[in-house]
């Protein structure tokens, strides 16, 4: 009876591992693969969110969402990115929508 219990345990452990790997892959499907260091006009941006390697993505990035719902990936260390984020944060009371992951 011990071999049967061992086989059942191994099957359950395998299924658990497969589910963990597939759910981790689903979470990383919305990551920026590269960033472009081209300034985006404030008037075109409605919100932003950040992406980190801790979230399962390959690179850190700041994702700006335009009024036309385009997602533009920018390098988080750039001075213009920091300035735009501050400007959006100080004026976000004018925005009705919030960026969602």
TrEMBL record:
The cross-references to SMART domains, in alphabetical order and at most eight, read: SCY (SM00199)
Per the record, the GO terms for biological process are: immune response; inflammatory response
Can you give the residue ranges of the Chemokine interleukin-8-like domain?
28-88
Q: Which GO terms describe its cellular component?
A: extracellular space
| Native source organism of the sequence | Engystomops pustulosus (Tungara frog)
SUPFAM superfamilies per the record? Interleukin 8-like chemokines
A Pfam family hit: IL8
Superkingdom as given in the UniProt entry = Eukaryota
GO molecular function terms listed in the Swiss-Prot or TrEMBL record: chemokine activity
**Name by which UniProt lists this protein:** Chemokine interleukin-8-like domain-containing protein
């Amino acid at each position: 009876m011990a071999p049967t219990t061992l086989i059942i345990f191994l099957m359950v452990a395998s299924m658990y591992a497969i589910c963990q790997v597939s759910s981790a892959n689903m979470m990383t499907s919305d990551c920026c693969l590269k960033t472009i260091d081209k300034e985006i006009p404030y008037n075109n941006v409605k919100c932003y969110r950040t992406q980190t390697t801790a979230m399962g993505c390959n690179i850190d990035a700041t994702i700006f969402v335009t009024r036309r719902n385009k997602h533009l990936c920018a390098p988080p260390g750039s001075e213009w990115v920091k300035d735009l984020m501050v400007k959006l944060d100080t004026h976000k009371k004018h925005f009705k929508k919030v960026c969602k992951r």
